[in-house]
Structure prediction request, 343 residues.
Amino acid sequence: MRIGVLTGGGDCPGLNAVIRAIVRRGIDGHGHAIIGFRDGWRGPLENAYEELTIESTRGILPRGGTILRSSRTNPFKRDDGPERVREHMETLNLNGLIAIGGEDTLGAAARLNGDHGLPVIGVPKTIDNDLGGTDMTFGFDTAVQIATDAIDRLHTTAESHNRVMIVEVMGRHAGWIALYSGLAGGADVILIPERPFDIDEVCRLIRRRHSRGRFFSIVVVAEGALPKEGSMETVAAEEDEFGHARLGGIGQRLEQEIESRTGYESRATVLGHIQRGGTPTAFDRVLATRLGVAAIDAANEGKWGVMPALRGTRIELVALSEAVADLRTVAPEDYAAAEVFFG
Ligand code: F6P
Prediction:
């Protein structure tokens, strides 16, 4: 068989581990050829590719980013997008395509398979951990570790200077990174997109800490967190090809609001893409490798329209359509454990 592979959307620690697993298992285990498309969906749209070999994918397991590079190209926003993907897959004699990505990349993969009959398999990735169908995505564990390290470091300055430190982490629709790093780092307030926050309540919690003799606080906020309507102004942002706003800025707004309302010196730190950079944790390397092996095994059996997913401790195949139907967001009971430590 000849199988294409691409990485789409934001990069994520562990992408190279998936590519390596697909190549190693595909070539050594099944005798297939693996074609790597460049820059996400731009690759099959514009026929930009290279053949991947065991040699060309050596040494990439611990490397962050993606050797195939990535983009936020949406094939459904390009003229004749699905037809061009089909045409280039035919020119290259491909039997199928493995798309490694998050909600947008896999959403496009599900439509190309469901509506256009293209033989596509998805592999779930995103540091946000918000994909349905799987208990966890690779990249999340690394992002949480990076954010926790940052919170630990900010703690020392917060305590030395009696400051409120606001740490803005990623998480567009789901607050998993904020919740986990906040729990691990001992945050005093955690704000997530799933629960619009009340700025008065945030300030009350911080004041309560002061009244108990703790003169510093750590607030962890997901970039997608929003104040309750009318309670605080926010900034509008531009959108990408999938209609997602370019987020960032809530940390800065909280810094101003908290300082002006409480009088306590406040400072915001935006972790941004640092959370997506560098080497994946051992957990993410293992998960990514297992998903890559399962994806190429599914392709070998001609099982298209599926996605290997982590269910409990096992890797199982689920329908791509199921995986992109609903986002996995933070439930009230997940948040409750963090609230115990607020204020
Ligand atoms: O979806 C992953 C993610 O890291 C989000 O948390 C974030 O909103 C977005 O990507 C940022 O993307 P970009 O790389 O385009 O700034």
About this structure: The radius of gyration is 22 Å. Residues 96 and 299 are 7 Å apart (CA to CA). Residues 10, 102, 126-128, 170-172, 223, 247, 276 surround 6-O-phosphono-beta-D-fructofuranose (CB under 6 Å).
